[in-house]
Each structure stands twice: as structure tokens, then as C-alpha cells.
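This part of the workshop introduces the protein records we will be handling. To make this concrete, we reproduce a full record directly below:
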Amino acid sequence: MSGVIVSMRRTLLSCTSLARNGLVGGALAALLPAAPAKAADLIDTLSLVMDLNRQELAVLATALALLGFSVVAAILLMRTRVRTATNEARLRARIGELQLQADRFGALLFAEPQILISWPAGDNRAQISGDIALVLPRDSSPQRVLAFGTWLPPEPALQMDHAVDALRERGDGFQLTLTTAQGHMLEAIGRAIGGQAIVRIRELSGLRRDLAETHLRYKALSDETEMLRGFAAAAPWPIWAKGENGALTYANPAYVRATEATSAIDAQERKLELLDSADRTAMERGLKDAANFTSRLPIVVGGERRIYDVRAVNVGRGSVGVAIDASEADALSSALVRMAEAHRRTLDQLSSGVAVFDGQRRLAFYNDSYRRLWDLDRNFLDAHPDDSSVLDQLRAARKLPEQPDFRAWKAKLHEAYRAVETAKDTWFLPDGRALSVVTTPNPEGGVTYLFDDVTESLDLARRFDGLIRVQRETLDSLAEGVAVFGSNGKAQLFNPAFVRMWKLSSDAMRDEPHIQTVEGWCHQLFDDPQVWRQIREAITSIENRADVPLKLERKDGSVLDGMIRPLPDGATMLTFQDITDTENVERALRERNEALEAADQMKVDFVHHVSYELRSPLTTIIGFAHFLSDPSTGPLTPKQAEYLDYVTKSTNALLALTNNILDLATIDAGAMKLELGQVDVSKAIELAAEGIQDRLATDRIRLKVEIAPDVGSFVGDEKRVVQVLYNLLANAVGFSPQDSTVGISARRTDRSVVFTVTDSGPGIPADMKDKVFNWFESRSQGSRHRGAGLGLSLVRSFVELHGGKVRVDSIVGRGTVVICDFPTDQAAHRDAAE
């Protein structure tokens, strides 16, 4: 707009200039061609004011510019209104056409009753149009249209819900045929159109309904056909169909496999048959005469002869057949027959008389024991007599119990034919026999009688009762208290000693009290809850029934030795014996023995404690001695080096003594474990000899070693064997004079390796031989030997730990010989020890 005003202003200035030059009229005429009248008036006016001064001309130019702008704006507005009016007329005409077209489409769409439901994209509100009364009463709300479950059965409603959800979420179209709860058939079509999900529902009637029903029936028939074909294809039995001319029209895979064809077409083309000619002829005859055929036939399948149940029936103008493998059923039937025969043979071997009567009360089976029991004629029994005839014949022979009313007794006996449970009775016969009679109703009708001669059993029961009375008298005479509790925890038997021992009432015990009640009565003498719980669990438990010893120290100072012993019938017997006097003597002996053991243990603990307490400072001293002897710590004077050497030797000797004490204490405590392996005899002697080389050189003693060529090796703890040999050699060197000889030898026997160490020392007196292996037993016997007296103790302990033996032979003034035997078979030693 500002640009137009500027342009107008420039035009007016030009007009003013032209007016001055006499050209104003032409310029205005050129500027305003659409308004010549107004331009002429403007020229006249300009001519009148030509004489005005410049200020007036400027005002006039401004007014003229505004006037020109107004004129141009008016012209433009007029043109815009004309154009808008034209476009509005065209738009109204187009809207009319579209409305007419929409009305035509709506009329065409709703020419028949139907409902349209649409969901715009992203909007859950549905728009419903059409005839709602199609599926619901006319006064129903649109919300009920969307609730499919209100006018459709559950299954179609669920199907419709799933289809609509798939349409709205993924745009999946659908077409469904639905039946309402009132029986109306509807067609529902869903499509995604123009960004909207649209569902169209209309009622099917007339020809369209017939077509839909025909389609449904066709689909159901097609589904049924496919299902039957799938079943036939998956069935493991050969299934086939034949046409009117007897040609094979269908064969399932089982038929193809049975006939060894490559496919069903191959079986049809080659006319392969499952049955042989005779069976096939019989089947065709049966189908012709009775329209069906059933028979159990042998068929060879895969080179194996099996039994099949073949069934065929006429269907339409042809026939269908199936062959079901009955080999197992046939084998089972044969096995059942054999089993029945085996049962019959087994029943014939029974000592009990067995008679089976069928539903008509006739004898169907009997065994030989039944015939011998009643001494009946075999021909009579083989004629299958009825139950009444058998009883009448037995009564005539006076073999049945005497009855005042035989007819009523027989009628009561025959109630077993209508009973559902087994009945038992005992018959006492006139000849003195007693029979146990068991009548069992058969599932297929009839009754099985089982007769057992229990004469001896009753006699044994009478004898048993007498034996029980004798045992009762014996229990009553015992000084030991006895009580028997049943598996239900109640007292069944007790003797007077039990009552006196626990100060109970005999009358109360005869009422068969429970163990918990008896426990309450006995609390005045003994109230340990743990022991009573053990007694209760032993009496009432079902598993882990074993003898449980008891020892009760009661409040009155008495001691009872008890035993819980399970009995074979499930009962439990408690026995108690007063051992107060014996316990007092045993307690005194035990206390004395414990005092001795405590003293001995105190000695061992003292040695152990002192040894461990010595080891810690010894280790420190030895470490610092080694540190001082190291050249890196600085030079030592000769005197310091001499003193340090004394310290090292003394601490090493003291450490060895401490280790020996610890080893002895460990062995004495039974905690020493051998690390078994192969011990090389030569290597062990060599290692032991290395430990005494400095002493041999100092005392100028020669070591003589003799090892048998076949000595080899044996199983043992190499470390402990070397320790044994070292202690023996050290002991021999210590007692041997200078310039003498110490010998060590090794040889193998059948069961052991023998080490022998000899010296030429002063020997051991006879009264000292039994003490040389004791702890701290050390005597110099005039030699240079000084020691704690533990070396030989370790020798004996280690050798005996290996299962060997040590012996000493010594002659005073002529030396000593120590012999150690190590067994070569440690496994045999361990088995013997176990």
C-alpha cells in the first residue's frame, strides 16, 4: 500500500509540473482513462489554482494524491467483489452437484436394510448410520450396536470383536457370516477406506440367504471331508475305497505302505490289493449279501504275518474298508486262554477245595481237592449239577453241619448269589472236622466257594492259648520288669515286677492305658522328657524298628538297665532291671580309671604344650643365628663365629628334640597319619646316613652298609622310615667308641623288609631292655652318648604304626643289635587293623 501511495505522489508532482507547462490536462487524461469526467473537472480546477503560491500547490498536490488513491482503491475493490461473487456462484453450483451425488449414493447404499459403522483414524468414537432395527429393536441405543455380545451368541461375538480389532489396528479386512441370538443371518464386511475403518452389516434374506446357507453347508461339508481325509491319512491302519466296479479309488498312506506301493496312484494303477484272493472274494460276497463285512484275517505286511480286523461297508455306489491291527489283541486273547488254563491247573494243585458256580447256579469248575474233600463222584460233578443238588447230596451223606431248618440255612447260603462282598463262615462237620468256608460273588455272576480244612489250625490255636498261659506265668515269676505295648501305644501285657518297680496300680494297668498315661504315672520317679520321647517314638513308630538300650538314673537313687525291643507282631516290649548295686561298683572303678587317664593325659598335654611353647622361640633363635652367619650381615670375629656355631648346634638339637616330642605326642594321641608310597630301601638308608656324616667324621667311626640285591622297595611312609633309620644310626654312633664300626643292613623276607643296625658299644643290661623304648629313658652306660631318650621311642612308634615290630639283642660289653621289621603289604595290615 505504501508503494502505491508513493507512486501516486510522484504522479501528482508530474501533473503539477505539466500544468505549469500547459500539459496538465493531457497528463491527467492519461492517468485516469477510466474516469474522463472526473479528469476534466480536475483540469479545470488545476487551471484555476495555477496562480497560487507554491505552498498552496503542495497542499493541493497532497489532496489530489489522496483522492487518486481513493479512486484506485475503489476500482480494485469493485473488481474483487465481482470476482468473489462469480466464485461463490460456481462453488454453490458445485456443492449442489456434490449434495445431489451424495444423496444418490446414500439412496443407493441404503436401498436395503444395513448398518455402517466407521472409526476415523486415531479416534475411538464410532459413527453409526443405517437401520439399527436391523439387529436390535428400534428403540435401542447406538452403543448397544457396538456391544456385539448383546445381540450375538458368545462365539460369533468374540469372532466379531477380534475381526474389528484387527481392522482398526492393522487395516485387515474381513467378511463374516453371523447368526444372531434370534436366528437372523447377517453378513459383516470390514474394510479400511480413506483412513477410516468401516464395517458394513446387513441381513441376508431370500436368494442371498439361501446362497449363504448353501455356502456354509458346502464349507462344513468341505471341512468335514478334509477332516476325514486328514484322519485317514494320519491313521496307522490301512483304509481304502473302491468304486462300483471294484477298482481302487482311494488309499491312505498306511495302505500304500502295507502294499509296498510308492504312492496311492501307484497302488491304483497297479491294482495292488491288501487281502489275498480268497479273503477278497469272501469280502465281496459279504458286501453283496449283507452290505457289510467283518472278519479277523491274517495279512502279510512288510514280510511279517499279522492279524487284522477287517471291516468293509457299502457306501453309495462303492465301498470303503479298514484293516485294524489286532495282533496284540489276538495274542492277548490267546494269552488269556492260556492263563485261564494255567489258573485251572494251579487251582487243581491247591489243597483248598474250590468250586465255581455260574449265574444259573450250575457247577462250572471244581478242583480235585474239592472232590476229595467231599468224596463226590467225578461223573456227578462233570455233569454240572446245580448248587442245590450238590448240597442235597452232601446232606444225604451226613457231610454238612446238622441244621434244625436246613431249607432256611440253604436259602441263607444262597444269598451269596445276590451279595456284593465276600462272606466267611466255619462249618463243624459231624465227623469232627472244621471247615473254613469263603463265598465270593463273581463279577460275571455266580459264586466261588473256597473250602479249607482248619481242624489243625483250631487245634493249634488251643495249644497256643495254653502256651500263652504258660508264658504269662513265667513272666509273672521274673524279677525283671516287663511290659508289652501294642502298635496303638496301649499296654497289652505286664508282670508284677514292672508294677512294683515303677510303683503302679495293677488295676490301672489292666485297663490298657496309653504309653503317655503310663509316662505321667512314672514321672514321680523319672521325668527326663528326652528319654520318654524316645520310648514313645519307639513304641508308635512304623519304620526303623530296632533294639534301643536304656539306662535310667531315677530320683530315688536307683539305676535301671532297660531295653526297648520291637516284636514281630508290631508290638514293643519294655524290660527293666535294677542294677543299682552293679552301677555303684562300676562307678567307683570308672572314677578311678578316669583319674588315671586324666593324669596320663595331663602328662601328654604338658609335653605337648611345652614342646609347642619351645618351638616358637627356637624358630626365632635359629632364624637370627642363620641371619648372623650370613656374610651379608657383616663380618664376625672368630670368637663370635665360634659362639654362633654353638648356638646353632644347640638350637638345632633342641628343635630336633622338640619335634621328636611332638611326634610322640601325636602318635600317642592317635592323630599321626602315614603318607604311604613306595619306599626305596637303598635311598632311605642313604638319606639316613647323610644325617650322621659329621658325627661319623668327628668320632672317626666307620659306617658299614649291607643291602641285599633283591631288597627293592616296599609300601610305607618314606619320611618316617628315614627318621627311624636316622635315630637308630644316631643312637648306635652315640654309644660306639671312637675308631669303631657301625653297621646297617637290609634284606627282604616273604612278608617284610628287615633293617638291622649294630654297634660295638657297652651293650644294654638285661633289666634295661624293656625300658629302652620308654619316653625320656636315657642312660650313657659309660659312653659319650647324651640325649633326651626319645629316639628309640620314636623308632618303636613309627615301626608299629607301619604294622611292624622292633626287637633289641644286646650283650653287655659286646654291643647292641636293633632289628626292625616293616611289612611289605600295607593293605593287609590295614584290613587286619580294621
